Amino acid sequence: MCGIVGYIGYQNATTIILNGLKKLEYRGYDSAGLAVIQNGKIELRRDAGKLSNLSSMVDGNPIAGNIGIGHTRWATHGEPTSRNAHPHMGMTGDVVVVHNGIVENYLELRNELTSEGVNFNSDTDTETIVHLIERFMMSGCDFSDAVRQTLRMLKGAHGVVVMSRLCPERLIAARIGNAGGVVLGIGKDEMYIASDLPAILEHTRNIVFLESHQMAEVTREDISIQTLDGKPVQLKIETVSWDPISAEKGKYRHFMHKEIHEQVRSLTDTLAGRVDFDDCELRLPQLNLTKDLAQKINKIHITACGTAAYAGMVGKTLIEKIARIPTEVTIASEFRYQEPIVNKGDVLLAISQSGETADTLAAMEEGRKRGAILWSIVNVLGSQVMRISDGYLSMQTGPEIGVASTKAFTAPLVDLYMIAALLAKFRGQADKNEIDKWISDLRLIPDLAGRCLDRENEVRSIALEMESVTNALYLGRGINMPIAYEGALKLKEISYIHAEAYPAGEMKHGPIALIDNDMPVIALVPRDPWYDKMISQIEQVKARGGKVIALATEGDEEIQKLSDYVLWVPKTPWLLGPVINIIPLQLLAYHIAVYRGLDVDQPRNLAKSVTVE
Ligand code: AGP
């Protein structure tokens, strides 16, 4: 979703902003722009489409200055055209703004400003912000006060950076609610601002995270933060350790492909330091789970969106089976509207790669209001989800750039398994041998993931057969039902093939009518407790002329006879099966999209971090 980069210092802001925006491309966007102060005047360059269009525009008509702001926009109000791209300038040419979020009361504000004679140059909600700032400045407020007063008038959640040619020695950045983050990077005689760390990590590791309702005045040498009520806030500088190199593509053509292959490492890292295989102990200190707390938990509510929600569905089976704690999964965008029955002391467990998903954060806030203990499994360090949690597990995956989530799906599956086993242990839910076996099974996971990747060529040839299909049906049962959902989501996200997933037992209640020779059915039939039931479903599909691509355990000859193609997975303890079974489905979706010549890493209409409701 939208990305922000700002710079003030002694270098050329244009270059730093363009490079920073490039690092945020993965978030998804449909236009881009930047503004710098050059010879006392704000110079603006904006264009629809990819960042390369903006770069060519800047090459053809260069601008340079030591202070500037830039933006990649994912359209909400107004089409993705150059006139709607950020930054937005007011009528005087004195002030310019970039913005993430939605001004919920923009119509009201726009009508008010129009009636006062303001001309709007775009269809965006953002443009109201710059006109309001100008109005306050014209009525005598200084720059900071004008921004503060404006921000206080906005409804909704926002990340904003403002620049004025009348105050060329400072940028103002603010955050209200959860429209993505606002991070400030501290350099030597230079400062950086961004919506996300990757944009500035190559320049500095010393970071300040803005909290909601805080506004920062950023000069070359200094940062001062106040609340929107004008109360000073003490600066808290954090040092982050992500290696920006690990976010580069390396030998891979696409980030998604790289990230699928990184799973052996990310799964190893997920276990490292947390599982002691010698004495079968689990160490999850950041979760703040004590024996006393574990014994008091009556219910766990898992909430998340998209892929993370499918991980949560696997988590429900794991927690209920291993720890025997009732667990409910609710899609985060629904949670707060359901008057959820959350009792004081229940746990609300949020799962999020970005840690900035607006719906997930809103669900957490709802849980907090109702007295829940907030836990999270989250990837982006310092993100809002992590910061508001009472306890968290940080995914050990490193940055995930491909819009289609892969390694940030398998890591939380292992995290959920570890949480379930720790809960079982603290609650005395199973005997020591059983718990030790669960824990020791974890050691198999990285190697099993690697064995799936070794079979990539087989998956690629099945992808070639499926390249031109227009529909696909994914079937699964039990713990692998969410894997069918996730496999279908991967296919539709990056290949634009219509794909649906069903619990296989539901086939006869409707979807079986769809079966014919043109409907490939991807059936998940690993050796798990639902195996026999799945076999009979495959037979029903075959009896109606359907084409079956089975995902099955190596050596299963019966499946081979029944299916047209087989995606083989190594034999895996069934509670950990989902971690392994998704890998061939990720590869299948990836190779189909590549054969179709599509933009795998940045599929149309999608954003990596969904910071609007
Ligand atoms: C995954 O492939 C999707 N792009 C999407 O469903 C994603 O998982 C969802 O938007 C949640 O994001 P989060 O994990 O950053 O909260």
Question: How would you summarize what this structure contains?
Answer:
The protein is of the alpha/beta class. 36% of the residues lie in helices and 22% in strands.
Topology:
Elements: E1 3-8, H1 13-23, E2 31-38, E3 41-48, H2 51-60, E4 67-73, E5 88-89, E6 95-101, H3 106-115, H4 127-138, H5 143-153, E7 158-164, E8 171-176, E9 183-186, E10 191-194, E11 206-209, E12 214-218, E13 223-227, E14 232-233, E15 238-239, H6 255-261, H7 263-271, E16 275-276, E17 281-282, H8 291-296, E18 300-304, H9 306-323, E19 327-331, H10 332-335, E20 347-352, H11 358-369, E21 373-378, H12 384-388, E22 391-394, H13 407-427, H14 432-441, H15 445-454, H16 456-466, E23 471-476, H17 481-495, E24 498-503, E25 520-525, H18 531-543, E26 547-553, H19 557-562, E27 565-569, H20 577-595
Parallel strand pairs: 18-19, 18-20, 20-21, 21-22, 23-24, 23-25, 25-26, 26-27
Antiparallel strand pairs: 1-4, 1-10, 2-3, 2-4, 5-6, 6-7, 7-8, 8-12, 9-10, 9-11, 11-15, 12-13, 13-14, 16-17
Explained architecture:
With 613 residues, the chain is an alpha/beta fold. Helix content is 36%, strand content 22%. It is built from 20 helices and 27 strands. The strands form 5 sheets. An 8-stranded antiparallel sheet has the order 3-2-4-1-10-9-11-15, covered by helices on one side. It has a 7-stranded antiparallel sheet with strand order 5-6-7-8-12-13-14, with helices on one face. Strands 19-18-20-21-22 form a 5-stranded parallel sheet, sandwiched between helices. β20 (347-352), α11 (358-369) and β21 form a beta-alpha-beta unit. α4 crosses α5 (143-153). The chain is globular. The model has no long low-confidence stretch (mean pLDDT 93). Bound molecules: 2-deoxy-2-amino glucitol-6-phosphate. Residues 305-308, 352-354, 357, 360, 403-405, 493, 606, 609-610 line the site of 2-deoxy-2-amino glucitol-6-phosphate. 2-deoxy-2-amino glucitol-6-phosphate binds next to α9.
